[in-house]
Design a protein that fits this description.
With about 140 residues, this protein is mainly beta. It is about 10% helix and about 35% strand.
């Protein structure tokens, strides 16, 4: 029996990139840290919020790589001479990735009260009707 994939379906032409995006997002292997929310703030805008307590602006980086939003956090080893009796506040590095659809752009990023907010906007799609002229051969 042959496995029918999205890219090989006879009526789905040119969707190979979508299939690759689905595979890439499934393989991202993001664990549960840091926790995050995704909310729709208007008809064409979204906000991703990550809980990044203990991270400052200089410990975080936000990049867009091949239509993928990548948020990384890395804390330096401050006060190596400190002795913890209990360490319940996570201070490990992380990387969170979000695949962006075509037309979705990353806006501003704000950090406040231990939360990192990243705003996204989606451009309005244009409806295009194209008439193809048929010529005699």
């Amino acid at each position: 029996m042959t496995k029918l994939t999205l890219g090989s379906h006879p009526y789905m032409l040119g969707f190979e990139q979508l299939e690759r995006l689905l595979e890439r997002s499934a393989k991202s292997g993001n664990e549960g840290y840091p926790p995050f929310n995704i909310e729709q703030t208007s008809q064409n805008s979204y906000r991703i919020t990550l809980a990044v307590a203990g991270f400052g602006e200089d410990n975080l980086s936000i990049t867009v790589e091949d239509r993928q939003l990548v948020i990384r956090g890395r804390q330096g080893e401050e006060g190596e001479d400190r002795i913890f009796l209990h360490r319940g506040i996570a201070a490990r590095q992380f990387q969170r990735s979000f695949v962006l659809a075509d037309g979705v752009e990353v806006g501003e990023a704000i950090i406040e009260n231990g939360l990192l907010h990243v705003d996204l906007t989606r451009a309005q799609p244009e409806t295009v009707v194209q008439t193809i002229k048929i010529r005699k051969g």
